[in-house]
Amino acid sequence: MNDLPKQPAVPDPANELASDSSPIDPRDFRNALGTYGTGVTIITATAADGKPYGITCNSFASVSLNPPLVLWSLGVYSSSLTVFQNASHFTVHVLGTSQQALANKFAKSSDDKFAGVDWTPGLGNAPVIAESVANFQCRSVNRYYGGDHVIFLGAVEAYAYNTGKPLLFARGMYGRFLADDERKKSP
């Protein structure tokens, strides 16, 4: 009798990450991942020609407090990938509940996502968008390739935050955090 868990055969490393050789259905896997609620961020950087770029992202996470490090990821087929790969700095903006339209704006392709957006240049000229719940101005430290995404690691060089309520995302929908004391006040 053997109590050890059964393990599948070790996959061939050359084919392990190939999508056509995975037994997992990508759409269903995405649905499963969608059950994990995340914050909503906009990541910004400036291209070599000075043009600001930004994307909506929910793959943001803290990595380390000392030194202060964060990460986020971007699909390898993103039209702005080269900008972020070449930028010395990027800024992560945690969006508030009132910024759902802004999240939608930066989630879509557009020639000028910054039209009508209140922002100032931050470290490395990466745009800092006004009124976000928090922002983290980061120096690009490294990037790693993981399947169909590039993972960006940033050293936080400046940050700011306020008491605004963060915008959340789960199961393809926006929402907000409802604290226990707020639930007790609701009818």
Question: What do you see in this structure?
Answer:
The model has no long low-confidence stretch (mean pLDDT 88). The protein contains four helices and twelve strands, in the order αβββββαβαββββββα. With 187 residues, the chain is mainly beta. The chain has a domain at 37-109 and 118-170: Roll (Pnp Oxidase, Chain A).
Biggest pleated sheet:
7 strands, antiparallel
- Any idea of the CATH topology of the domain at 37-109 and 118-170? Pnp Oxidase, Chain A
Average pLDDT, rounded to a whole number, is 88
C-alpha termini separation:
57 Å
CATH architecture of the domain at 37-109 and 118-170: Roll
Elements, N to C (H/E): HEEEEEHEHEEEEEEH
Percentage of residues assigned to helices: 10-25%
Which radius of gyration do the C-alpha atoms yield? 19 Å
Q: Please provide the count of β strands.
A: 12
- Report the β-strand fraction as a percent range: 35-45%
Task: Give the spatial strand order of the biggest sheet.
Answer: 3-2-6-9-10-5-4
CATH H-level name of the domain at 37-109 and 118-170... which superfamily? Electron Transport, Fmn-binding Protein, Chain A
| CATH class categorisation of the domain at 37-109 and 118-170 | Mainly Beta
**Outline:** globular
Global structural class: mainly beta
Low-confidence stretches: none
Number of helices: 4
Domain Flavin reductase like: 33-176
Keywords: Monooxygenase, Oxidoreductase
GO molecular function: FMN binding; monooxygenase activity; riboflavin reductase (NADPH) activity
Family: Belongs to the non-flavoprotein flavin reductase family.
